[in-house]
Amino acid sequence: MIFFKKLENLSYFVIIFALTLLLSSCSSLFKEKKDPVTEKKEIWEPNSDARARKHADENPVIIFGDKNKKNSSQDSEFGTSNVLWRATLKSLDFLPLINSDYRGGIIIYDWYSVDNNPKEQIKISVQFLSNELKSDSIKITAHKRTCKTVEGCSSSTIDQNFASSIKDSIINSARTLKVEEAKNQKK
Question: What is the enclosing helix (H) or strand (E) of 54?
Answer without folding.
Answer: helix 48-58
